Amino acid sequence: MIELGKIQKLKIIREAPIGVYINSDEANGIEDILLPKKQIPEGANIGDEIEVFVYRDSKDRLIGTVNRPKLTLGEFAMLKVVQKTNIGAFLDWGLEKDLFLPFKEQTYDIEEGKEYFIGLYIDKTKRLCGTMNVYKLLSYDSPYNKDDKVSGIIYSIKPQFGAFVAVDNKYQGLINNNELFKDLNIGETINARVIKVKEDGKLDLSIREKAYIQMDKDSELILNKLKSRGGFLPLNDSSTPEKVKSELNMSKNAFKRAVGRLLKAEKIKFSKNGIEEIQDKR
Length: 282
Hints:
Layout: E1 7-16, E2 19-23, E3 33-36, E4 49-56, E5 62-65, E6 76-84, E7 88-92, E8 99-102, E9 115-122, E10 128-131, E11 149-158, E12 162-167, E13 171-176, E14 189-197, E15 203-206, H1 211-228, E16 232-233, H2 241-248, H3 252-264, E17 268-270, E18 275-277
Parallel strand pairs: 13-15
Antiparallel strand pairs: 1-2, 1-4, 2-3, 4-5, 6-7, 6-9, 7-8, 9-10, 11-12, 11-14, 12-13, 14-15, 16-18, 17-18
Helix pairs in contact: 1-3
């Protein structure tokens, strides 16, 4: 059986002036597909098995290629837009025929020359197409547990929820709004920590360490910020969470923990309108 959109081993059945025809052993000559002459591996003969990717050519005929696309059916990759039209866009996915991204599968406005996180699917007309709506395609059955370290690509940011992440380009993850303390961009690769595995298998993520580890980093960040600002920061216990985030890209609770550590270590002190660095008198 020939599988559209997948890499598979097919046997050379017969020769033709324009190449060879290939198929699976079970097909018995039904729906042989062409492997163009320039794609035939050197020394290949009738009866040999060849690993190919199956897609459709410009005339919508099934065809094989020994070239490897940047993604196969059920996979995801960052692909560059090479052309925009009024019905959709065309993407470079490593094959001669560009991948079509229908307009209805674009989740936001795209630009030529830029890369976007794309999934591959088969549309109603049995053609391979790209989609930016990858939420419905990502898997929920990841092997990860709480506190595991993961990496992934941010494919969507929604103010009401947070940043959606394709973990390992395969699994569904989310950095909730209350864990977002720095600017993130769609297409950015991030390292994160699993803070919760939901009942449905989705991963809640944080780009910050556990509190006791993060406290050291936050304390150092505050000291560095103080040094760069002449030893003073207009922040204290009364500062709003928004003000703390704006100044330091951290939560109000993280700020209070780090300040408490610095106060105990006698590296800072409260002043009338903020905190000051205590200069080393040695």
